[in-house]
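Notebook entry, structure prediction.
Reason for the run: the old model in the group folder had no record of what sequence produced it. Starting over properly, with the input documented here first.
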Amino acid sequence: MIDTLLSGQLLFAAAVLGALYALIGLGLNLVYGTMRLLNIAHGDFLMLGAFAAFWWFTLTGVSPLLALPLIAAAGAAIGLVLYALIFRHQLAQGLAPAVIEARSLLLFFGVSVVIQNLMAMAFSATPRAYRHLDTVYHIGQTAMTGNRIASLLVASAMLVAVMAFLNRTLFGMEIKALIQHRDAARIVGINVGRVQAVAIGLGFASAAIAGVLLSMTEQVTPFMGFRFTIAAFVVIIMGGLGNIRGGIVAGFLLAIIEVYAVSIFSAEVRSILIYGAFVAILLIRPQGLLGRARS
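New structure, fully documented this time:
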């Protein structure tokens, strides 16, 4: 048992899953932190990125990794369109955070249903997959496929790049200021509308990128996004809503718990674990294991 728990195979699996969870949670956290929008359609935008990667590879035979900038830009564009058409006016009204959260929950629910059914009508609900970078490499006793190595490297690079952007650029600091206190950010002259637009663009782009990476190892279906939406909410609740660094740490923590629980018990434990963690954290520590209560 000890040898199994300390195996490089499980550590590698947890690292890959943790990087993906952290990336998915990052996008959700940026949107919530800056605008208090509860995007329960987040996994559906991940699904769109996965479909884009599938069709890109199917039609061109070119690696979907080369299409990452294009698919990320398309994801950001969708986010900006939704922001301009639906959310900008509501955010400008100065509504209470609880009202914004409740309205966004309902609006994104509608968006989720529309996206899923449009994709099912267009491509059917039949699972699709493709083989890319599936060569197996061995380091000692650890077997690693090329697509999982690529997922780990790309997701980790994205996390590092976004954290550097937030911590070392003026615009990134403006985003962090808006997350910490919206009214104070406006008072000191931060262009709240511009910051919100960039944040939602980054959030949706990161979901699309995560979808591309997942498409190399997961079956793609119009309804694949829901479980990743739940996982993303567990991550940001565990890390603290709006706490970007805490969300990244929580992504890896959730992956470690999930991978090791499945290896000890069975694959059926996965859903129980994620949903159970979601409910338990909401009940016991709603501000997050790594977060502080927000005003």
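Summary: The domain at 2-284 is CATH 1.10.3470 (ABC transporter involved in vitamin B12 uptake, BtuC).
The old model has been moved to the deprecated folder.
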